Amino acid sequence: MKELVEFIAKELVDFPEKVSVCEVEKEGQTVIELRVAEEDMGKVIGKQGRIAKAIRTVVKAASMKENKKVQVEIL
């Protein structure tokens, strides 16, 4: 999942070298923390959060194949 989020984020932003993705286990689920440059935050979130929602939907669909519970946080 980490690689998937990292790939999607790097394709969206102007500064792909500043994309950072961490996987953390919290309360029985995996939390993927995505950090991008301040200037790219709007591109990752999108208008009314549409891009962020799309990223979460893709990750959720991919995680269902592995029977895991994954949450994406954009920091």
Automatic annotation (TrEMBL):
UniProt KW Cytoplasm keyword: yes
Keywords: Cell shape, Cell wall biogenesis/degradation, Chaperone, Cytoplasm, RNA-binding
Keyword Chaperone set for record: yes
Location relative to the cell: Cytoplasm
CDD domains per record: KH-II_YlqC-like (cd22533)
SUPFAM superfamilies cross-referenced by the UniProt entry: Prokaryotic type KH domain (KH-domain type II)
UniProt subunit comment: Forms a complex with KhpB.
Family: Belongs to the KhpA RNA-binding protein family.
Function: A probable RNA chaperone. Forms a complex with KhpB which binds to cellular RNA and controls its expression. Plays a role in peptidoglycan (PG) homeostasis and cell length regulation.
Protein name per Swiss-Prot or TrEMBL: RNA-binding protein KhpA
Protein source organism: Youngiibacter multivorans
Taxonomic path: Bacteria, Bacillati, Bacillota, Clostridia, Eubacteriales
